[in-house]
Design goal:
2 domains
Length: 502
């Protein structure tokens, strides 16, 4: 077992690294978009339920603390009890040694370390409530004084935690189904208890804000998510390959192969049938569901990220019983070291790589394909673009965009500072929650003239994008941006005029 002082030191070091990343890493596309959830609070949003918006408001003191750390603070703070829930869960089903292994492997996952541990993403509150739900479920079903029975006093709090998981991100529904599946096959007598059905009623009540919001908005969110479900059996086996590579990368290859080794290959060397079944029921269904969707649609590898928590716990339980201590310590060191190195390399690449990793041939599309530009240099380029707008005395015009990204970056770093209202025009599949933000800003009314900014790495011809709104498009400036002395992309500034009458 690792010395307790060393274990606590590693956990604290991870916390410090998260704070440093939060301060110095610029905000990404999704992050600036989710700031809208706090600026325009609601009981539900187009892309996700309410938790991220309200946690963001709470921990930034109602957006009085407006900087990278202030925005990301809720994710960092929530990551602390998340570690506690995993540790305590493992102590209940195994021992302190296995708990230490599980926590350190959990912290070594790129998904847990950064995406759900630092970024302004719904994954942060989801993972907090997900791990709380696992802890309460383990207390419910694995009380050492009631082997094979149910400690009912924890079940109602468990249902509240599961409901809050779903109000953080819809993916929580898979954890609910996993726990219900475990109950049906391994604690079936509990189905006769009033407590079980009281819990089901509580879970149904948590769906009310989601259902009510969609009822009032023509069920648009159901249309959005139905587009992620296959309409026809047009198999794309490459999709599973891409998803698998993504899951390995986001989990951390060392952690992923630790899971393969101990949670799968050496699975049978530890008996504990009920415990293993519970951890598999709360992990595999969601992972398999994402792989199934990947056969037909584009998927994102972080979707199944929380499911790997149970697999990390299972592999730690098995490894603690069958592997030599020195091997485990070496594996943990490699996992932790790799996630730190990856974080440093990612930070360096985003901030200091000379020029672009993307297209360099076409000035209109310069930088296309460079994923690092989603986070690079928006604060500095925002100042330059505002100066250009001021020089031309155009800051009395509205700004328009045709897509939620890069609209959210333009909104955050250019329009807010210049007090220029931004509207995103087009179909809801492109505007997303800007459809409601537009209304909060007074609703779009055709202005005689408008500005639009098009970064070359996301170039879309405004003459096409806004053909239903304006007939005349004039490029009035081309603003270059540099990284480490090399050209990285251009920002096209256009004046739109000639209102199209409908």
């Amino acid at each position: 077992m690792i010395k307790q002082s060393s274990f606590i030191g590693i956990v604290l070091l991870v916390f410090v690294l998260r704070v440093l990343i939060a301060i110095y890493l610029p905000l990404g596309n999704d992050e600036v978009y989710y700031l809208l959830y706090a600026r325009f609070p609601s009981y539900h949003y187009y892309d996700h339920p309410l938790m991220i918006g309200w946690f963001l408001k709470l921990f930034s003191f109602n957006l009085l603390w407006e900087n990278n750390l202030g925005y990301r603070l809720f994710a960092i703070v929530l990551s602390i009890p998340t570690v506690f829930f995993i540790y305590k869960s493992m102590v209940v089903i195994s021992n302190q040694s296995a708990a230490q292994i599980a926590v350190l492997l959990f912290l070594s996952s790129i998904y847990n370390f950064v995406i759900a541990g630092v970024f302004v993403m719904p994954d942060a509150p989801m993972l907090f409530f997900w791990t709380l739900s696992l802890y309460l479920a383990i207390l419910t079903f694995f009380d050492r004084n009631k082997i094979g029975q149910v400690e009912e006093k924890y079940f109602i709090p468990l249902c509240f935690a599961l409901g809050l998981t779903c109000l953080s991100k819809f993916h929580g529904i898979f954890l609910i189904f996993g726990i219900l599946g475990f109950i049906f096959f391994y604690r079936r007598s509990f189905l006769k208890s009033w407590t079980f059905w009281e819990g089901i009623v509580i879970l149904i009540l948590f769906s009310f804000p989601i259902i009510y919001w969609n009822y009032n908005n023509d069920w648009v969110q159901f249309d959005f998510y139905s587009n992620r479900v296959p309409e026809a059996l047009n198999f794309k086996f490459s999709g599973i390959g891409k998803e698998l590579i993504g899951q390995i990368a986001y989990t951390n290859p060392f952690v992923y192969f630790f899971i393969i080794t101990f949670a799968i290959l050496k699975y049978r060397k530890i008996k504990r049938i009920n415990t293993k079944a519970f951890l598999l029921w709360t992990s595999l269904p969601f992972i398999f569901a994402v792989f199934f969707v990947a056969l037909f649609k584009e998927t994102l590898p972080h979707w199944s990220g929380p499911s790997y928590v149970s697999l990390i716990m299972l592999s730690s339980l098995v490894a603690d019983g069958v592997a030599a201590q020195w091997k485990l310590i070496s594996w943990i060191r490699l996992s932790l070291f790799s996630v730190v190195i990856i974080s440093i390399l990612g930070f360096t690449l985003i901030n200091f790589y000379p020029g672009t990793l993307g297209n360099k041939k076409d000035s209109d599309k310069y930088g296309t394909g460079d994923f690092t530009l989603d986070m690079y240099g928006w604060n500095s380029i925002g100042n330059k673009i505002r100066d250009k707008i001021d020089e031309r005395h155009l800051n009395n015009l509205v700004m328009v965009s045709d897509n939620w990204f890069p609209a959210a970056h333009i909104d955050q770093y250019i329009c807010r500072e210049a007090k220029i209202p931004l509207f995103v025009l087009g179909e809801i599949t492109s505007t997303h929650h800007y459809n409601w933000v537009n209304q909060a800003r007074g609703g779009w009314q055709s202005a005689d003239s408008a500005l639009t900014i098009v970064p070359s790495n996301y170039f879309r011809d405004p003459a096409i994008s806004f053909k239903n709104y304006y007939s005349k498009v004039d490029k009035i400036d081309l603003i270059p941006q540099y990284r480490n002395g090399e050209l990285v992309r251009y920002f096209h500034l256009y004046l739109l005029s000639g209102v199209v009458k409908k």
